[in-house]
Amino acid sequence: MLADTFGRPLRFRITPGQASDIASAPALLEGQRGKAVLADKAYDGNDLRSQIAAMDAEAVIPSKRNRKVAIPHDALIYKHRNQIERCFKHFRRFATRYDRRIIHFTGFVHLAAAMIWLR
């Protein structure tokens, strides 16, 4: 899911459970603009960082442990990532994906997104 600074959802993609987080990130960022892109270590990849740089945005992503040369990130900006995580954690059903059928889960994501945007 792509969320704005206030934790409001902008875009989402439903992927299989075994898919890595970073696999859907390029499509979510396509056509977006911003000053910075905040993400956790799961999104630390050179291709994604290149895409963010092409957007003229700063990649605020901590380096993975296995990266040979750590890439520094702005820790003060990274603290705001919790606002984005609230988008996921506000609805437990959304965060844990209780629904078995994709159509039911997608419907709930749309409902949750509308509720978040209206508050």
Automatic annotation (TrEMBL):
TM helices/strands, residue ranges: 102-118
Record keywords, A-Z: Membrane, Transmembrane, Transmembrane helix
Superkingdom to which the source organism belongs: Bacteria
One example of a Gene Ontology biological process annotation: DNA transposition
InterPro entries registered for this protein in UniProt: Transposase_11
Domain Transposase IS4-like residues, every copy: 4-104
One Pfam assignment: DDE_Tnp_1
GO molecular function, one term: transposase activity
Keyword Nucleotide-binding belongs to the record: no
NCBIfam families: transpos_IS5_3 (NF033580)
The protein, known as: Transposase
Organism: Sphingomonas yabuuchiae
Taxonomic placement: Bacteria, Pseudomonadati, Pseudomonadota, Alphaproteobacteria, Sphingomonadales
